[in-house]
Amino acid sequence: MFKSRWIQLKGMWKFGGARLLFAYIRDRICHSKTRERIISGIIAKNITTENDHSIEEKAAAFFCMKTGQTINYLAPQTFNEKIRWMMLYDSTPLKTQLTDKYRVREFVEKRIGAEYLIPLLGVWNKFEQINFGKLPEQYVLKCTHGSGMNVVVKNRDAIDYESMRLQFGLWLETNFAYSNFELQYKEISPLIIAEKYVEELDGNLLDYKVHCFNGEPRYIQVIGNRNLKEHTGRQLLYDFEANRLDWTFGDYPRYEQGILETDKLQLLYGISKRLAKDFDYVRVDLYIIHDKVLFGEMTFTPNAGLYTYNKDFTESVNRMLGSLIKISTPNRTEN
Q1: Which DSSP symbol is given to 309?
Q2: What order of strands is seen across the sheet that includes strand 292-299?
Q3: Over the stretch 200-236, which tens digit does the pLDDT of each residue have?
Q4: Long-range contact list for 293-296, CB < 8 A, 24+ apart?
Q5: Do residues 68 and 7 make contact, with C-beta atoms less than 8 angstroms apart?
Q6: What's the rounded Cα separation, in Å, for the pair 9 and 3?
Q7: What is the Cα–Cα distance from 239 to 237, expressed in whole angstroms?
């Protein structure tokens, strides 16, 4: 515990110096968010530089600060390390397209068919262009260039348009790459889309997150009991032989009993494999509603590779998952 805390503090110092350490202390005392603004500014400054070595140094310090773990970009071994490595050195144009919540739809339609997509109601460059009178009573508005940038409208007459306008204005000005060094977000053109409201998605529907390694679906992370506002839920992890595993990714506590619909395993496997075949690692998120599979998203950097250790996600799990990702690191030497 002491070693992890020391690594975090050293990372904080290397990342932001005395200014960030002071903000960290002030935030803990005053419950403010000064540190988050400083971190975002430092990431933005380093991502826009031409000095790759500087980016790597700051990204390494950021990782240590967030996880209490060390990182080796020259020879990544763990799941966290390889995800962080791919964020800097494998953020390809295709990954940018598939991270974009609008442009990914074309890829999904070609690979598996339009019937797996939630119906699209509109696309706009800015909030003021939306004709709300043409939208149905219920729908979902979301930005295409980040995570968590969405509003569920259940009653059109209860909309606070000014509050929503200010929120989307703020989101559209945000480059999500500056949050955690997830460079695949950097070149996404911010848009607003509206999708059909699917009532089951707003309730206690199970979320099937299929983790694929080198194009092969390996594990299903099943999440339910979710409260999106409070960021709570429960989960279990399975392999494709329906075996319940004794570890998870640690982001939610476990269910006490099994929850997998085993008769859907082959369907989930086939869809995920067709979407994942080009990638060293990707997580394919799917839903099952009335026996129909719907596409959620493709995630290349789950939790931004910042998983911390606990009883469900241990160092040995981190290393085991890392061994499944086959990447070719460049022949570089430290400057």
Answers
A1: P
A2: 232-239, 216-227, 207-213, 281-289, 292-299
A3: 766 567 899 999 999 999 999 999 887 766 778 899 9
A4: 293/116, 293/264, 293/267, 293/268, 294/116, 294/117, 294/118, 294/198, 295/108, 295/112, 295/116, 295/117, 295/118, 296/207
A5: yes
A6: 10
A7: 7
Report the amino acid identity of residue 267.
L
Query: Distance between alpha carbon 54 and the CA centroid of its chain, in Å?
Result: 24
| Distance between CA atoms of residues 327 and 310, nearest Å | 26
Distance between CA atoms of residues 55 and 84, nearest Å? 12
- Please give, one letter per residue, the 3-state secondary structure of 236-251: EEEECCCCECCCCCCC
- Strand-pair partners of 234: 224
- Residue that is written with structure tokens 């262009």 in the block: 129
> What is the longest distance spanned by two Cα atoms in the chain?
61
pTM of the predicted model as reported, rounded to 2 decimal places: 0.90
How many Cα neighbours within 13 Å face the side chain of 198? 18
Strand (E) or helix (H) holding 84: helix 79-89
Q: Are 294 and 116 in contact (CB under 8 A)?
A: yes
Residue 183, both tokens = 């460079």
